[in-house]
Amino acid sequence: MMDKVRDWFGFGPMTHGMGGHGHDHGEGGHGHTHGVIDPTIATTTRGIWAIKWSFVVLAITAALQLVVVFLSGSVALLADTIHNVGDAVTAIPLWVAFMLARRQPSKTFTYGLGRVEDLAGILIVLIILFSAIVAGYEAIDRLINPQPIAFLGWVAIAGIIGFLGNEAVAVFRIRVGREINSAALIADGYHARTDGFTSLAVVLGAIGVWLGFPLADPVIGLLITVAIFAIVWQSSKAVLTRMLDGVEPGIVDEIHHAAEHVPGVERVQSVQARWIGHRLHADVAISVADAATAKDVLGVTEALKEELFAHLPALAEANVRLESPAGSAEKGTEPSHAHGHHAPEPFKVDCDLAAGTLEIVDTPAGERMRLTIDRHADDLTATVIIDRPEGPETLHLDPVADNHHRLESTLAPAEPHEFEARLVLKAKDREQVLPFKMVEPEGHHH
Has residue 19 got a pLDDT over 50? Predict the structure, then answer.
């Protein structure tokens, strides 16, 4: 119950449209509707709706506070009013961004104008930074030059109004931002929440002045300024990551996870994904059996696309291409089956903790022992122990670029590549040891 309440108020984890394995894969668990309305138009319309109502609420809040500012002469309340006006103003770049995102792609902007939303996010971060500087300046000025405040009761009421107005807008923006996966709208929601706490600081300052501590208000104002700078840092990281085509690591894992549900996909060769505005685009390269016909390949790619759209609600476009291991090497990407000129046959792994392929591959750094995983338990670790005449050779397999579906040794296995060995898999309190043997191809014995 408490989790639902926290999520409603925007304090829960951001899970909508992100990676994760906590969903049902039973019959009918992946249903989605193909409507006649473009999903991008639907989500941007909802975003514009959220922005309009946020602007109305904050404008009313600022107007009510401004009346009390003229009556009381409170500098702290004036600063808080400036914050609320600034928060309302952030609706303008977001509204422009959402309107531009509705435009159809053109010959110049072939992906549309969704990136404008990221630019709006940067502008919002700058507005938050400006409000933090203003808040700090006002607090320091009141420490140096204390000023009397009249109508303390009205100042406290205005501070409460400011908090309620900002919190209502924060909840609204964060919830809608999560629904449509808009980093800019979520960042703006947290900005509104911070300004709400600034309004509470006005209330505490008024109480402190009433109790005979005139410096209580500016001291609390400085603490709130620090909190605003923290929000600037958090929001800027999120927006800049998306501008640089960064995605949450869970999205890549979820794409691999979706491929596990498609018969005929032998291996996921590579995954690329990026956000354009609040819509996700994915490019997936797969390999299928050599005996697969053109009809089989078409069926596999269509089935994978359906799974991708079911697993990732924010997905706007999925490109699935067929790529052989040799083809990936020719394109300069790291191959998954790049056997060296004398590499042994791969060892097929299939147990409770994992399923996949263990092999020796050629990489730009040299030969490596690699475990490519199709299915695995949580917190899986893998170690290869090779029996050598001079003693055991131990190779720890670590995730490549945080990809837990590809584990690779940092060192090359010693020559010769014909040996008996053990693959040790561990996950939490479970362990499985899989003995295997690698034999070099005929004519390549040392």
Answer: no
